[in-house]
Design brief:
heterotrimer; A mainly alpha (382); B mainly alpha (408); C alpha+beta (542); B: 408 residues; mainly alpha; 18 helices; 72% helix; globular; C: 542 residues; alpha+beta; seven-stranded mixed beta sheet; 20 strands; 30% helix
Chain lengths: 382, 408, 542
Amino acid sequence: MLSFALRRFFILLLTLLVVSFAVFAVVASNERALRALAVGELGSRTTPEEAKSWINREIFHQCPKGERDLTKCTPYPVYERYWDWLSGFVVGDWGYSIVFKKHILGYSEFKLDSRGEVIKDRDGVPRPNKDPWGVINERLTATGILAFWTFIPMVFFALLVGVIAGMNEGSKTDRSLSVLSIATTSMPEYVSGILFTVFFATAFGVFAWLAAFFDLFAWTDTWFDSWAKRSPLKAVSNYDKDGTSFAVLFLPVITVAIYGFGYIARMTRASMAEVMASQYIRTAILKGVPRRKVVLSHALRNALIAPFTIIMLQFPFLLSGVVIVEIIFNYKGFGFALNRAATNMDFNLIVACSVVSVIVVLATQFISDIGYIILNPRLRKQ
Amino acid sequence: MVFFSLLGEFFVTLWPVWLALLIVMGGSYMNRHRLGLYGHVYDSPVGIVGLFLVLFWVFAALLAGFMDLYEPLETVRGMKNKPPMTVPQGIENAQPFIFGGDKIQRDVFSRIIWGTQLVLPIAIFATAVSFTVGITLGLAAGYKGGWLDTVLSFIANAVLSFPVIVLFYLIVLMGKDSNLPIALAGIIFLFPIALLFFGLYGYFGGWSRKLLIACLIVGPVLIFAYLRIAYNLPGLGWLADWAARTFGGGDQETASSITIWVRDFLRLPGNMLNVFVAVSFASAPGAFRIVRGLALDTKTRDYVSAAETRGENSWYIMIFEILPNVRGPLIVDAALRVGYTTILLGTLGFLGIGLGTESPDWGSMINLGRSLLRVYPHMVLPPAIAIMTLVLGLNLLADAMREQSLKD
Amino acid sequence: MSSRTLLGGKVPSSVLKAAKDVKNGKVSRREFLATATALGVTGAAAMSMIGVKPAAAGSHGKMGGELRISMQVKQMTDPRLFDWSEMGNTARHFCEPLVRWNRDFTFSPRLLAGWEANEDATVYTLKLRDNVTWNNGDKCTAEHIAWNLQRWTEGDVEGNSMAARVSSLTKEGVEIVDATTIRLNLTKPDITIIAGMADYPGLIVHPDFGGDLSANPIGTGPYNMVEFEVEVGARYEKRDPAEWYGTAEWGEVKLDSIVYTDYGNDPAPETAAFESGEIDANYETFPAQAELMDGLGFTRSQVATGATIIARGHQSEGSIMANKNFRKALALCVSNADMLEVGQNGIGSVAENHHVGPMHEEYVDLGEKPTQNIEAAKALLESEGLAGAEFTYSYLAGGDYRQSTSEAMISQFREAGLNVEADGRPASDFWSNWLNYPYSTTNWNGRPLGVQIYGLAYRGGVKWNEANYSNAEFDALLDEANSLADPAARSVVMGKLEKILQDDGVIIQPYWRGILCHHSDAVHGYFKHQANEHHLEEVSMG
């Protein structure tokens, strides 16, 4: 077990190294990316000459603070930048995000400038930071909240549907539940997001009708009236201001959940069907143990091992799925940050997001494997 | 009322599709017992629905030319944001805009139908290319194992753990000025050729004169196509000029169209190569994993050992023993993967880095109308439903095929 | 009316002459007000000269309350690098300009007490207030202002857009006369310099601000910035009214706090926020959303502006865009009225392909309007041997008027048989090369004076000359126009300039944008400013 964990850890490190280097190699000297970076920094009406001189000074050279004369600067080749990034990365200094104008990881009591130095006023007093958490900390928390609320209904309903379908393999219920789960996997986030928005949050939507209906009875001040009128509309809003109300999370959650739901449900169904067909369950049923008891106390436990691994593997998928959802609903989480970083070529943030994403994927894979070994009695004994 | 006239117009305009569906599906249903795996699909209602949805889009793509449609980029004055079933003013016998007009005064319905001619070929060919990558490497990794397997699996896992959005931005957006997509295209498009070569190599039992002759016959054509597609091989100007002179018949217009045809023959226009590469690259590791798993599973079978004892070379075993025996799951996965590729393509369009803002591919249409979703859902709902139905059809079809192959 | 200029001096003779021209109809009222105030005449005096009663000053809104506005919150570093009006707005509540361009198209002093120009507009005398304090406690001195003026002139700082706005000023030209007087000695006559100072990058910063305003929000304004996060939001709280010099001058500001929230550039979340009462006002309503917002019961504030969209070919040597007749043929392909309909839902007015319009004081109606004539365009292309010519048309594909207009224009080009490749690009990608595309559309903000625009974008060799246009005759006439303070005299020259630009087919300028915003009933005094500026001192909640 220990050697297995160590091997996985080694692979994780190696992947991080390869991925971060690949991103560096592609972005660090790409003309288009650097120009986009210069434009982001200097403003949209930058001339190509200005961009060029800025890139040359800020990216390809290291200058003393405020120095504009290139002869007083030292060249800063890509491999040195990578090395500096890597040594910072290891100690948790992930650099500065140009798009968000703040540090990327960790807590900083004082405001930092783009070189990571504390900004001081003229008496030498450091400026306190009203927004001390780094981009990744903040955005990943927001996405964590979204993921948490997505997982609860998604997993619950997927297991429920999967178990019911698997118990009655081949029946009409099974057939229709299967088609349902296939249908949900056919809807990428940008499709279901649109359908849900139209269905819930437009003038043609359900809630608009509900609100109109309740207006009919002049229940103006009831909680339901205001809820029906406002909450689904508010759902296209932003995390920072609203916290995590039901209204904010409703549409993003169902949009993400619907795509993952089908897959888990089908895996659970397959696993359940297999268990139900196994010898000991058949024996139990033949012995006259009530079917409900058989399912709850024998079949379920064994049938849920396979879905467990699948559920863990949904995390990485979720991390990339939320990019689209966060764009659609303007939810300011990890995916939003990733998208902003990529569109503006915010170099440090792109690498940071890629690295986080790789860590999440490989860590969940690891947990899934370990969990499978622990849950499965036959494997545990080996 | 509008709803019914919309439905009516929808059915009338699509008459070639209905006709083709009737002939093909009706004919196949009659002869379903003679048609193998394809025929078995007709045994399940799920399969029939899936096939119906898929064939609907396929025939829409093939027969778009026979329908009474507006051009995909045609703008009609006064049709900006107009609701469904609005008839353009000032044109005689004008077709109504069945799904309404978009921001740029174009007909949403016609664009959806023309869009199939982009979405389907790209999805299918990108899947095919990613499958050749997956098969070549997956068979080798699964069958040979060892360090090859370790390295390839590591690379596949690394690509899979990388956020797909960043991958797209790196390849498509930044690729416009860099050599990255061309380099990737160079690698990816090598695999169909490699697979063919290894197939021949296995078939002829290693190096032999026959192999050499076969290579000399197929080689030049393939290499030409490869250089043309992946590297946009220049230097066809003289050929274009020559063709225009020889076949143009002195007519200026014909000559110029011949020039353009020769010049653009087998060349992916504009951003399409980047998009194609991005989509195939994102989809290939998945295909690799599937094939590798199947190969691992199959290599312990008796017929493989038998072939090994016969002394067949390993490419023969991989391509002519293992591959045919895992075709069932592979076909199912192919159907799923075309759907997945469609989704990826839509993602690119949605992010605004796809085939171009004007392009009638469905993702780009969604992106174009998205900001007005709450006011004018008619621009966004049709492409969204189009993606959904195509992918749903493919998924249902795959499910039916899996069920049927399990029964056998 | 004892003092007719801000400093109590003599009214320039050109202004007196212009006032006469207004009365006999040669110059419009708006033109007159802009020039007169730019040369130092008080708004009230200028109005009385032409017989207009100034609007009653001071409103009687309720004190207190919070105004929540939806606006994109972009980075806020150094004002002279600002390239978006939104950046100016996030800074303006605590960082003030020397001069303000008012809603009524006049200029009025903010940090200045007043200014005066000499007869040929080569020397400007700026009078400073002596009661201005920074919110860090320092007194605002003449040295501070001079330092600001000098750093505007640093043309070699990348992105410093003030350099082009005050191009007639050099570092040495800034002269501190005494503690409250600064004299600007210009290198050439320039009537645009006050207007340039009033533009959004012209906010005055403290010498210690360190190049990043968001980290060091030091300013002189009536509010203090308490929160700021790019892409998320910003918050301002009222500074002690006794500390702000303006309280004595204009009265106490009404609002206790101002909040900006960033809902991205997709209008849907913003609309939702409006409906659910999360915000009281927005920065801008897209024309396509206008009716929806009206229908939801919000109040529209709309203004005709000089904001516009320009399609131009890059006239690099040897390219088809260097061919004048080709450019003229392109202009013949396009119906400007159609573009207005597609791009702006008709909100705005049709323009005439020379980038000066009725909102500018020196505008001359050339009479003949550009009209679409596909047949004539085809014939012209044929005669040049350019029928079916190919070119790439780049534009910003952000889903707004720029994309709609460009794609509609492309479709009209294609009607004339041209082979246009559409190249829509995401924002960061588009701007990184905006000056060099073979053909592209760019949006331009409105500017008070027509000569300003010509100096910024069409003079040979200037930085933002995206058409790469170079015409010695044009440049010479432009210099002449710049030295004429009298709008009537300037109009004559301007007419020639307009004609040259139109005849050379330099640009296709389909329309002037009408811009608008919405606010809820609770908000009083909120309005859409012609240059997108937020002036919230008079705004109240109820």
